Amino acid sequence: MKISRRHAASVTIAALGLLPLAARAQANDAAVYPTKPITIVYPYATGSASDTLARQVADVISKSLGQPVIVDPKPGAGGSTALEMVTRAPADGYTLVLSASGTMAVNPHIYNLKYKPVEDLASITILAEIPFIVVINSSFPAQNLKEFIAYAKANPGKVSFANAGIGTQAHLTQVMFMKAAGITANIVPYKGGVPASTDLLGGHVDAMIDNAAAQVANVQAGKVRALFVTTQERNASLPRVPTADEAGLPGFVTSGWFGLAAPRGTSQAIIDKLNAVIVKGMSQPEMRRKMIEAGWMPLGDSPSDATTRARGDLARFGALVQQIELKKE
Hints:
Number of strands: 10
Mean pLDDT: 90
Structural class: alpha/beta
Largest sheet: 10 strands, mixed
Oligomer: single chain
Number of helices: 13
Radius of gyration: 22 Å
Shape: globular
Low-confidence stretches: none
Strand content: 15-25%
């Protein structure tokens, strides 16, 4: 069937005429949003440091938008269970998920997922940077990083070194650290950071890599000895803990992040509205103080910046997973 130029032009003009209507509809939806409770799906077990972060963000959104915000834990498969559920949820702004560098950028290389996190979720913002920390049992015969490395080299494979699970970002960072330090250790994976930390405190493992926020209380109470944090600068909640550079491992800098995302197709106007209230709430002095004291490094960037970082990390961790030859589960 042939279509005349005049007919084609009229169809194009009509389609263009619909664009402002669609934009106005999105703006109207965002203007009244939300009209009912919002759910933030939490990908991990309750009681961890990131659980507190999710509830802090829920409180910010609730107070700003005037609707209850429920944090709903859905642990499993390194966070993949929760993210898959949210990718299938209605794209109406009422189901969100606590995203992370691990679930967005690491899991696609570790698990045979039925979805693509970076493509099937719309990033709202990155909430906070995650510094990692290496801690040891208080009775371990090393007082600092140099002594730990010396002990591990003198006793190859004998140091038991825990993480929150094979394929987690903590595990990948652990492998990076061991390679940079030139040591071997007995890597002990757990199903989450909480049981790993419990065994570290109980003396069942010698060392652990964890996110700094999860270990703040233990370090401050002297229950574990901190060797270093993985960020370029010291963590404000742990001012006495050196960076890797300061501790004797030059150039070792890495971190993760937690963010917030919605199902793909959620109106940009709603994404922008959520971003605005979260960034404003997180910039308040009291909120920043709470996050910093807990061990987080508050961020709060734009949806486009959050998406760009997720895509970059996806490529970066893919290369690392290939390098250490981890097989998909």
